[in-house]
Amino acid sequence: MGIRILTAPEIEAMRRVGALAAELLCHVGDQLRPGLTTQDIDDIVVAFTEARGARSGPLNYRGFPRSVCTSVNEVVCHGIPGPRVLQDGDILNVDVTPVLPAKHGWHGDTSATFYIGEPSPQAIHLVETCRRSLEIGLEVVRPGARVGDIGAAISRFARAQRCSVVRAFAGHGVNRVFHDEPTVPHYGFPGTGPRLKRGMAFTIEPMLNLGGPEVSVLSDGWTAVTRDASLSAQFEHTVLVTRRGCEVLTARPRLLVNSEDRPYARLWPMSCYSAA
Ligand code: MF3
Ligand code: CO
Ligand code: CO
User: How many domains does the chain have?
Assistant: First the structure.
């Protein structure tokens, strides 16, 4: 088996669904506000995805009951949309994965953490550290680098900022298969793991906590929470390894409302994305 290398037409298909995933995340961000329920977000995702002739990867994936993951505050990932009402001061990760074409199609997997109303200084620190940690991971990606280089760079930065890195979940190869090889941990050692090659597609999706890194999964079988109930944030992109670096397949056409557009966003300015 090994790690799949995409052909030119397959890359085109991944570009199309990646762009759709990015648009969907922007569309959700526009509508977030206190008083909305996480089920309302599911409704928004279903309507947009249907209108574009795509399918939602999460729906019925290993029994997941909704079309998007919505993870509030202490929820690390895989939060199930439902009656929970978003409150002023909450942080919310929305993780979307449209599939195009709807049958046997390609996955575009991306997420961001949003601010609902006015966040605490600690929430800003966590979310902005997490946002930057993903960018730091992206900057490592190029042919010849190792998978372990990515997690090493992310965890080094996160720990220096006094945030812990969740170890129970990782990035993953993504194509027609939602979760494929390689596994991309957000911690580890440089020079370890598989070597990256041009044409590989995978996600980087660091989850950072203000407290300890340990997680528990609730009795619904999905919702992962921090064991110490501390806040958790996550950002995710789907990337393609290119000749010189990486192409962010889920790069957004504009700033995310309620996240990237806030005046306190980007405590750390971007250095640069590697050129495609
Ligand atoms: N989108 C998640 C990821 O980044 C996976 C969600 S699986 C689901 O890998 F079943 F919870 F939707
Ligand atoms: Co993913
Ligand atoms: Co995802």
Answer: 1
Nearest to 140 by CA among 155, 130, 125: 155
Give how far Cα 117 sits from Cα of 76, 91, 254, 259, 274, Å. Answer: 20, 9, 20, 11, 33
Residue with CA nearest ligand 1 atom 8: 58
Choose one of 46, 78, 93, 174 to mutate for the ligand 1 pocket test, by most ligand atoms within 8 angstroms of C-beta: 78
What's the helix, strand, coil split of the chain in %, to 5? Answer: 25, 25, 50
Atom of ligand 1 nearest to the CA of 205: 4
Domain that includes residue 243, residue range: 8-266
Q: What is the pLDDT along the chain (276 residues), one digit of tens a residue?
A: 799 999 999 999 999 999 999 999 999 999 999 999 999 999 999 999 999 999 999 999 999 999 999 999 999 999 999 999 999 999 999 999 999 999 999 999 999 999 999 999 999 999 999 999 999 999 999 999 999 999 999 999 999 999 999 999 999 999 999 999 999 999 999 999 999 999 999 999 999 999 999 999 999 999 999 999 999 999 999 999 999 999 999 999 999 999 999 999 988 876 544 433
Q: How far is the CA of 98 from the centre of ligand 3 (A)?
A: 10
Asked whether the beta carbons of 205 and 235 are under 8 A apart, the reply is yes
Residue at 155 is within a domain = yes
Residue 240 maps to a domain: yes
Q: Is residue 30 part of a domain?
A: yes
The rounded Å distance from CA 235 to ligand 2 centre is 10
The verdict on residue 114 lying in a domain is yes
- Specify the ligand 1 atom closest to the Cα of 62: 10
The CATH number given to whatever domain includes residue 183 is: 3.90.230.10
State pTM to two decimals.
Answer: 0.97
* Ligand 1 nearest-atom number relative to CA 97: 1
Q: Whose CA is closest to atom 2 on ligand 1?
A: 95
